[in-house]
Design a protein that fits this description.
Elements (H helix, E strand, L loop, with lengths): L1 H21 L10 H11 L18 E5 L2 E5 L6 E3 L7 H10 L3 E6 L14 H14 L5 E6 L3 H8 L10 H17 L5 E6 L10 H15 L5 E7 L11 E5 L26 H12 L8 E6 L43 E2 L2 E2 L2 H14 L4 E5 L2 H6 L2
Parallel strand pairs: 3-4, 3-12, 4-5, 5-6, 6-7, 7-8, 8-9, 9-12
Antiparallel strand pairs: 1-2, 10-11
Helix pairs in contact: 1-6, 3-4, 4-6, 8-9
C-alpha cells in the first residue's frame, strides 16, 4: 500500500511540475483516449450517455433484473446539478449522491487558484472528492468538467501570471487531460465531458466562432470518447453543430418580447402563487426555439439575486422600458425580486425541493421528457431538507 501511494504521489507531483513550468508540452502530452475509454467502460457502462436512446430516454423508467429481484428506477426530476462555486467537501459529495443526477458538472478553477474550500479543486483534492462521491456515497452518474473560463481569472489561475493569448484555450484542455490522468492513476471515474463556456472568456462568444473553438478542442484532445458541451441563453435557435450537448440557461428573461424576452415572467417567482407552475411552463415552452432538443438540458438558477429589482406594473409587461428603476427602498433591495427572472432561490420566495420537483415534472411532461437541471446547485444542496 505504501509503495502504491508513493507511486501515485510521484505521478501527481511530476504532472503538476510539468504543468506549472509550461503547461503540458505537446511532445509530453499523453494520448489517453484508449485508457479513458477502457476505464469508463468498466465504471460507467450503464450511464454512457445522458440520453441512452430515443426509445429509452434519460427520464424513462428502467427495470433492472438482479438475481430474482426487480428494481424499478423512477424517472429523474433533476438530471443535472451544476456548480457555480467550487465545492468538494464530504457533505457536498453526500448530497449530490443522494439526488444522483444523470450528470454532475464540477466547477474547476485553474491550477494557480488559491487553496481554499471554494476554489480548485486541485488534483489531490479532486481525487479525494471523487473517491468520496463514488465509493463512499455511490454516485453513479456522469462527471462533467466546467473550467472557469472567465477571462479575468486567466492570468492568475491558468497562465502563471501572464495574460490571455491566442492559444490560451489549450490551458483548459491540458488541465482536463492532467486531471483525468490523475483520476486514472487512482483508479477512479474520470471526466467524460468537457463543458466549454465561451461567454466572458478570451475565446469569443459568437456562434460562428464557437464552431472553430469546438473543433480546436476536439482536434487537440484527440479522444473521440470525450463529449464536448456548449452553454448560452435559452432563446437561441441552435448551438454549435460540433458540440455534443447544450445547456440552455433558463433565466435572464426579463426584457421585451420583440427582443426574445419573456416579460410575463418578470419580477417575483413566488412558489405559493396559484398557477405559478403553469405560468412558468406555458410561457417557457412557447418561447423555446432550440433545435436538437434530445441533446439539450434546460438549466434553472438558484443563484442569490443581485441587489436590484424592476418596477414593472402587471399591466405593462409587454413593453418594458430600457432602464427599469428599482421600486424597492435601498435598505431592502437585496431582498427584492430581480431582473434575472425567473429565480428559484430568492430570499423570501425560495423554492423547496417539493415545489421545484413539481415544477420540473410539469416542464418535463410539456417538453417530451426534456433534461432539466440546476445552476448554483450549492444553494439547494445546502437548504433542501
Amino acid at each position: 500500500m505504501k509503495g502504491i501511494l508513493k507511486i501515485v504521489t510521484i505521478v501527481i507531483t511530476i504532472t503538476t511540475i510539468v504543468w506549472g513550468a509550461a503547461g503540458l508540452r505537446k511532445s509530453e502530452r499523453v494520448d489517453i483516449s484508449k485508457r479513458i475509454k477502457k476505464h469508463n467502460e468498466a465504471t460507467q457502462e450503464h450511464n454512457n450517455s445522458m440520453f441512452p436512446s430515443v426509445a429509452k430516454p434519460a427520464n424513462s423508467k428502467v427495470t433492472i433484473f438482479a438475481g430474482d429481484s426487480v428494481k424499478v428506477i423512477a424517472p429523474r426530476t433533476i438530471n443535472v446539478l451544476w456548480q457555480d462555486i467550487s465545492s468538494w467537501d464530504n457533505e457536498t459529495a453526500r448530497k449530490v449522491a443522494a439526488i444522483n443526477p444523470n450528470k454532475f458538472i464540477i466547477n474547476i478553477d485553474g491550477p494557480g487558484s488559491l487553496h481554499r474550500s471554494t476554489t480548485g479543486p486541485h488534483p489531490t483534492e479532486l481525487v479525494g472528492f471523487i473517491k468520496t462521491l463514488t465509493q463512499t456515497y455511490n454516485y453513479s452518474g456522469i462527471l462533467v468538467m466546467h473550467p472557469d473560463c472567465n477571462k479575468a481569472e486567466f492570468k492568475h489561475d491558468w497562465n502563471n501570471g501572464s495574460g490571455w493569448y491566442s492559444k490560451g484555450w489549450q490551458r483548459y484542455a491540458d488541465y482536463f487531460v492532467l486531471l483525468n490522468d490523475t483520476l486514472i492513476a487512482n483508479k477512479l471515474p474520470t471526466f467524460t465531458e468537457l463543458l466549454i463556456e465561451t461567454e466572458g472568456s478570451g475565446m469569443g462568444a459568437k456562434v460562428n466562432a464557437q464552431v472553430d473553438i469546438f473543433n480546436n478542442f476536439r482536434n487537440y484532445i484527440k479522444d473521440s470518447s470525450i463529449k464536448l458541451a456548449a452553454t448560452s441563453d435559452w432563446n437561441k435557435t441552435s448551438f454549435p453543430t460540433n458540440a455534443d450537448y447544450y445547456y440552455a440557461q433558463m433565466y435572464d428573461v426579463c426584457y421585451d418580447k420583440k427582443d426574445g424576452g419573456i416579460p410575463a415572467l418578470c419580477g417575483i417567482n413566488d412558489p405559493l402563487e396559484i398557477g405559478r407552475v403553469n405560468t412558468l411552463v406555458t410561457n417557457m415552452k412557447s418561447s423555446i426555439t432550440l433545435n436538437r432538443l434530445d441533446q439539450v438540458s434546460f438549466i434553472f438558477t438558484y443563484a442569490k439575486p443581485r441587489p436590484k429589482c424592476p418596477s414593472i406594473k402587471p399591466t405593462n409587461k409587454t413593453t418594458l422600458a430600457a432602464d427599469l428603476i428599482c421600486a424597492c427602498p435601498a435598505w431592502v433591495r437585496d431582498k427584492c425580486p430581480t431582473l434575472l427572472s425567473p429565480m428559484f432561490g430568492e430570499t423570501f420566495y425560495y423554492w423547496t425541493e417539493d415545489q421545484f420537483t413539481k415544477f420540473t415534472k410539469a416542464f418535463q411532461e410539456s417538453m417530451n421528457d426534456a433534461s432539466v437541471g440546476i445552476w448554483h446547485c450549492e444553494s439547494p444542496l445546502k437548504n433542501w431538507k
